Amino acid sequence: MSERTIALVTGANKGIGYEIAAGLGALGWRVGVGARDEQRLAEAVAKLRAGGVDAFGVPLDVTDDASVTAAARLVETEAGGLDVLVNNAGVTGGMPQHPGDVDLATIRTAVEVNVIGVVRVTEAMLPLLRRSASPRIVNMSSGVGSLTRQSASTGEDQTGPLSVAYSPSKTMLNAVTIQYARALAGTNILINAGCPGFTATDLNGFRGVRTPQQGAAIGIRLATLPDDGPTGGYFEDAGVIPW
Ligand SMILES: NC(=O)c1ccc[n+]([C@@H]2O[C@H](COP(=O)([O-])OP(=O)(O)OC[C@H]3O[C@@H](n4cnc5c(N)ncnc54)[C@H](OP(=O)(O)O)[C@@H]3O)[C@@H](O)[C@H]2O)c1
User: Fold this and answer.
1) 93 lines ligand 1 (CB under 6 A)
2) 113 CA: nearest ligand 1 atom
3) Measured from the CB, is residue 213 less than 6 Å from ligand 1?
4) Residue 83's CB: how many other CB atoms inside 10 A?
5) If you measure from the C-alpha of residue 11 to the centroid of ligand 1, how many angstroms do you get, rounded to a whole number?
6) How do strand 54-59 and strand 84-87 relate by DSSP bridges?
7) Which family does it belong to (predicted)?
């Protein structure tokens, strides 16, 4: 195992994932840049390297078993191990997705990427993470996955547009995070879910009000938790999010 911290960020070719990769790279970490498109991957790696990040490319489609298996092998060969996994890749599944007006394929897509994709990548990377001295897993969720916020009838806590694909997929991702935290209790692996806030990226047609750098902050914070940090939690910049 290398003495330097090794991270892998999925969906790191743009948006929040790119900025998480840049932020972890700025700490002197070696960063695996996960991306499903060869061209977009090469461009992101080149840009990160030009900015001084020790980045290496990891072709990675989270919906594809063979791609994820190959990615785990590549990380091991290229970096010798893995300390931090950031499950950032995510999609809305498509719009609209209002109750009463939804294509079931939209739900399947959101769950396939946002939930099953995270489980697929986590399972593949766990053997590497178990060998690390301070392993961390960060699941980029969203505050719209909070059942407390989804069910708030009015006020500040009510969140997000009506959605029967994206928001419920993040609710399930939160539950998946809790299940892994339970299974990994007693190990040194800390796993948490984070929300970047409403951030201007492709995901929302750049309507978000935060910059991708601001959105990346919570992912970086959860990736760099101390050994006595929390696990099985759900956080945004302002603190704990109610489930
Ligand atoms: N933006 C927000 O306001 C906001 C709020 C809450 C939570 N989030 C979460 O933050 C994370 C990052 O989102 P973002 O806003 O940065 O969105 P984004 O700019 O659209 O980036 C999404 C990333 O995921 C990748 N991706 C999608 N499907 C993939 C697959 N099957 N395999 C591998 N990579 C895949 C995309 O790759 P391509 O370029 O190839 O499509 C892209 O790199 C997501 O999990 C999102 O749900 C975002």
Assistant:
1) no
2) 31
3) no
4) 23
5) 6
6) unpaired
7) Belongs to the short-chain dehydrogenases/reductases (SDR) family.
Q: Which of 18, 166, 180, 234 is catalytic?
A: 166
Q: 133, 22 in Cβ contact below 8 A? A: no
Residue 166 annotated to the active site: yes
- Buried/exposed code over 112-132 (b: 16+ C-beta within 10 A; e: otherwise): bbbbbbbebbbebbbebbeeb
- What are the two backbone dihedrals, phi and then psi, of residue 126, each rounded to the nearest 5 degrees? -55, -40
* Alpha-carbon gap, residue 107 to 96, rounded angstroms: 11
113: pLDDT strictly greater than 80:
yes
State the Cα–Cα distance between residues 210 and 34, nearest whole angstrom.
Answer: 23
186 Cα–ligand 1 center, Å: 31
**Within 13 Å of residue 162, how many CA atoms lie on the same side as its CB?**
8
Task: Please tell me what DSSP assigns to residue 210.
Answer: B
* Cα 69 to ligand 1 centre (Å): 21
Could you tell me the pLDDT band of residue 165, with boundaries at 50, 70 and 90?
A: very high
